[in-house]
Amino acid sequence: MEENKNELKRKSPFGAAALVLGILSIIFASFWYISLPGGILAIIFGRKGIKQVGSKLAKAGFILGIIGLALFILVYVSITLLLISVSYY
Questions:
Q1: How many domains in the chain?
Q2: Structural contact between residues 75 and 29, judged by C-beta atoms closer than 8 angstroms
């Protein structure tokens, strides 16, 4: 019973927040006003959750935040290159 109480005390909301924000940053990668802050906050909350309690949710949110930011960069670089190449023709 003591182990259950200690484990309940060790939970942190940062893991769940990082996971949700990481998922949102991936889903809305083409909307900069959602993806950019969501990905950055997912990384920040993920690192806090990992440092505080070592949460697996926080690790997943951290990784999803990085993936979301990478997709955001990929989408916007692709759009920029497409617009530049179209303007030359």
A1: 1
A2: yes
DSSP string, 56-72: HHHHHHHHHHHHHHHHH
pTM of the full structure: 0.83
pLDDT tens for each residue of 12-60: 899 999 999 999 999 999 898 999 999 999 999 999 999 999 989 999 9
Residue 59 amino acid letter: K
User: Cα 2 to chain center, whole Å?
Assistant: 34
Q: How far apart are CA 1 and CA 34, in angstroms?
A: 42
Residue 61, domain member (yes or no)? yes
Is 55 contained in some domain? Answer: yes
Give the range of the structural domain holding residue 42, as residue numbers without chain letter: 13-87
Q: Of how many residues is the chain composed?
A: 89
Residue 37 DSSP symbol: H
Q: Alpha helix locations (H) across 1-89? A: 2-9, 13-27, 32-53, 56-87
